[in-house]
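Key result, reporting period 2: structure in, sequence out.
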């Protein structure tokens, strides 16, 4: 069995740039989670710390436009 046949693909990652200019990679692992891959900012030349750190985070639910404009207590209903 080749190395490629023994690997399991989890997701694709896209290159992004944070507001501070630092590069990171992100991609959806499932409908509710994201993977985030960052360079290890504490890595020093010659040490045995990892080069990259992988995080998993919950995806934030996007509000529908109708949800954000509705009055939740219906105080403007005339009856």
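The corresponding designed sequence is given below.
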């Amino acid at each position: 069995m080749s190395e490629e046949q023994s690997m399991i693909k989890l997701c694709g990652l896209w290159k992004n740039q944070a507001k501070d200019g630092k590069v990171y990679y992100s991609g959806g692992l499932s409908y509710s989670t994201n993977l985030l891959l960052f360079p290890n900012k504490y890595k020093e030349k010659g040490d045995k710390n990892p080069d990259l750190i992988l995080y998993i985070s919950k995806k934030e639910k996007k509000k529908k436009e109708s949800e954000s404009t509705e009055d939740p207590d219906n105080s403007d209903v005339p009856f």
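Residues 31 and 59 are 8 Å apart (CA to CA). Helices lie at 3-6, 65-69. This case is discussed further under Risks and Mitigation.
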